[in-house]
Amino acid sequence: MDVPILKQSRYLIASIQSALSDEDLLRLRDALADLVGRHRARGVIIDVTALDVLDSFATRTLRAIAYTTKLRGAETVIVGIQPDVAFAMVQLGLTLEDVPTSLDLEEGLAFLDQQLEESPAGP
Amino acid sequence: MLLTDTENENQVHLHIASSADVVAARQRARALASQVGFSHSNLTVIATAVSEVVRNIVEYAKEGEVTITLINRGAYRKGVEIVAADQGPGIPEVSIVMRDGYSTRKGLGIGLPGARRLMDDFEIVSEVGKGTTVTMRKWVA
Amino acid sequence: MATKQTPLMPREEELISSSTAEPTLESTTALLRELVSILRENRTELRQEWARRITESRLLTAMTREEVFAEATTVYDNYVAVLETGSVEALQNYARDLSERIIPRGVETQEVLGVVLLLRDVLARALFKKYQLNFDLLNQVLDAYEPAANRIANTVAVGFVQERERIIRQQQEAIRELSTPVLRVRERLLILPIIGLIDQQRARQLTEQLLRGIRENRGKVAVMDITGVPAIDSPIANRLVQTVEAARLLGATVIVTGLSPEIAQTLVTIGVELGKMNTVGDLQGGIELAERLLGYKVVPVEDVASRSR
Predict the structure, then answer these.
(1) Contacts of A26 in chain B (CB under 8 A)
(2) Within a domain: residue A67?
(3) DSSP H/E element including B51
(4) What percent of chain C has pLDDT over 70?
(5) How would you class C235 by CB atoms within 10 Å of its CB: exposed for 0-12, middle for 13-18, buried for 19 or more?
(6) B76, B118, B120: best to mutate for the C interface, most C CBs within 10 A
(7) What is the domain count for chain A?
(8) Tell me: the pLDDT tens digits for C263-304?
(9) How many CB pairs under 8 A join A and B?
(10) In what order do the strands lie in the sheet with B131-139?
(11) Mean pLDDT over all residues of chain C?
């Protein structure tokens, strides 16, 4: 199952629609790494609203995505983590440290705008 | 040994052989557990714990079995039990691995201390060369 | 005055002859089967006798006569069914169901137990009457009946008490929820004032409420004030830290205010780097910090007044 990725000005928005297998997540990582370079994106939003579970693998992969995209000049922000999912994550000890998170798409975009404003040359 | 997946209204049994099965296992666990009155929050907790434990099977034993059973012994003994078993390499020094503080350790058993934090009852039996069986339960408050 | 005597059933003669032997499972089962048929045959009168005794003892006054009779019918039938099958499961389910219905009506535990014991007595008397001519047989019959009857009384009482406890827990949960509201004081600014002791249940509830509040109000900054919390232990401190981390996953910053020196020490003990956590001495200070974080400029009242002139 491929995750749809949209381009909105200098940002890429990946909306996860449903439970992803491990392969799907890894494909997402590779796709974003590729697209960030190709479109010179400055920011990436990954919307996980539809995910009912974020386990250690998913969390590791999201961190990996954030790291990879940063190397290519884009800041990644995760949006849409559900309250229940956040609750389970912290009990599991997963904190997505260093990866910015926002409430939803709107907030995520505002965050990226602010980041760009502050460092127009790039992260 | 090919075991067929079975299901009756109180139990689900799945053969685990790939990461796709991790998703299936946690979705089935959520669906089954929802029959017994868990809060939405706890259903997510259960699904997450199942995900961790089953993923461990896939990553280190390549294959195994998971059985999810509803416990319904009266109004005050309702819950769900998950047994995840494999005949993989086993976890050496499992008691050390299970100690909190090992959760940042990469590798074998990484998800297990976390899964234990999420569930109410948690037992693990592991023998190097023989395999691992994790039994965990969560009760409706 | 001649008393009407029911003729002995053929099986009873068999039993009389083996009455000096140890009761076997077979004979107990046979006895119970016979009991059941007696109780079924005389269902109407025994039930009426029971209902009469219930009224006489002034039990179940919260219910109307019709209701009492209707429930009595079901209880009686369930009672006899347990004697017959030996399984209490159906009775358990019925007991819970009944309890759920009558507890809100104000029926007390002693009433429920009293009523079941009355039935036990009514049925025992019927057995006395039937087997009065044969003391040995009566003893055997009671040996079979009494354990079963006691088990039934136990099942009903326990079912009732458990249901009560469940309802109390539910109410406690509701009270806890009411006592910790998440307040939206400004756009994107939430306050969570916590007063009193926090146990695991409450800590969990706090986290869920805060996260829900963040989601529903689109909160960006939440001030969690624990001025009113006298003390917390390490596990609860951990929960608080988890709450802060979970809120961050929803894009919100939590400012903890009102930490007593003791609580601060507990946090340090469990390894929390207080420097990493947003903490402010008091609620007021926390709100000011929150407003700064949200981009509000806090201007003293006199300045505003002088500007508008």
Answers:
(1) none
(2) yes
(3) helix B40-56
(4) 87
(5) exposed
(6) B76
(7) 1
(8) 988 888 888 877 778 898 899 999 999 999 998 766 666 665
(9) 66
(10) B6-8, B11-16, B64-72, B78-86, B131-139, B121-127
(11) 83
Length of chain C: 309
DSSP state letters, C256-296:
EE---HHHHHHHHHTT--TTTSEEESSHHHHHHHHHHHTTP
| Bigger pLDDT: C40 vs C307 | C40
Instruction: Give the CA diameter of chain A.
Output: 38
ipTM over 0.85: yes
N residues, chain A? 123
User: What CATH number corresponds to the domain at position A97?
Assistant: 3.30.750.24
Q: Do C214 and A103 touch (CB under 8 A)?
A: yes
Contact B51 A21 (CB under 8 A): no
Asked whether residue A17 is domain-assigned, the answer is: yes
Q: What is the pLDDT of residue C12?
A: 44
pLDDT of residue C71: 83
Q: Give the span between the Cα atoms of C287 and C294, in whole angstroms.
A: 10
User: Which token pair is A70?
Assistant: 């940063």
In a domain, A33, yes or no: yes
Which residue, B141, B139, B109, B103, is CA-closest to B121? B139
Helices and strands of chain C, counted as H and E runs: 12, 5
What tokens appear for A72 in the block?
């290519």
Cβ–Cβ < 8 Å for C98, C79: no
CA trace torsion C123, C125, C131, C137 (10° rounding)? 70
What whole-number distance in Å separates Cα of residue C247 and Cα of residue C219?
Answer: 10
| Nearest by Cα to C254 from C272, C230, C232, C233 | C272
Alpha-carbon distance of A94 to B104, in angstroms, equals: 10
The predicted pLDDT at position B110 comes to: 61
Q: What is the DSSP string of A65-83?
A: HHHHHHHTT-EEEEE---H
How far is C47 from C43, CA to CA, in rounded Å? 6
What are the two backbone dihedrals, phi and then psi, of residue B127, each rounded to the nearest 5 degrees? -135, 130
Q: How far apart are the C-alpha atoms of C61 and C279, rounded to whole Å?
A: 57
DSSP, res A14: E
The alpha carbon of residue A34 is apart from the nearest alpha carbon of chain B, in Å, by: 24
Q: Which pTM value belongs to this model?
A: 0.72
Q: Which residue type occupies C171?
A: Q
SS (H, E, C) B69-105: EEEECCCCCEEEEEEEEECCCCCCCHHHHCCCCCCCC
Q: Residue B41 is nearest to which of C96, C159, C208, comparing CB atoms?
A: C208
Cα–Cα distance, C120 to C118 (Å, whole number): 5
Residue A88 to chain C, least CA–CA distance (Å): 9
Residue A123 lies in a domain: no
**Boundaries of domain holding A26:** 5-118
Residue type, B84: A
